[in-house]
Design a protein that fits this description.
- The protein is built from three helices and five strands, in the order ββββαααβ.
- The chain is α+β, with helices and mostly antiparallel strands.
- Strands 1-2-3-4-5 form a five-stranded antiparallel sheet.
- β3 and β4 form a beta hairpin.
């Protein structure tokens, strides 16, 4: 969907091959309000009306708590997230469903560890 609010300190956690008609990515960064954002972006090049994004918003106080838990500075969260959750991806080349599963695993891990996460969707919810 190409959300125009591109997170700062952006790190790409996973993305699918961009040759097929459907592409997906998973990125981590911060928004202007200093929320840590995990964004799943789904693009269907043949049916653009099916494009959508899902953001997981971790508010600044929760992001600070997560950074302390992982032993990093808050600004290092995007990189630390990629290092930790990138290991869940054993595939050199992903398909969109694998990127979405990785997003789900990250979302579940945050919630299971007691972090408050707000989910925001834009576009078709697939």
């Amino acid at each position: 969907m190409g959300n125009t609010d591109t997170p700062a300190l952006l790190e790409v956690l996973a993305e699918s091959d961009d040759d097929p008609e459907i592409w997906a990515s998973l990125v981590v960064g911060f928004d202007a309000a200093k929320n840590c954002i995990v964004r799943f972006e789904y693009t269907n090049y043949e049916e653009r009306a099916r494009d959508y994004d899902i953001d997981l918003l971790v508010e600044p106080d929760e992001a600070f708590r997560l950074a302390r838990l992982w032993g990093v500075r808050p600004v290092e969260l995007p990189r630390a997230c990629c290092e930790r959750f990138g290991r869940l991806n054993p595939y050199p080349q992903l398909v969109p469903s694998q990127v979405k599963r990785l997003f789900g695993a990250l979302s579940d891990a945050l919630r299971e560890n007691g972090f408050r996460v707000r989910r925001v969707r834009r576009g078709l919810a697939g």
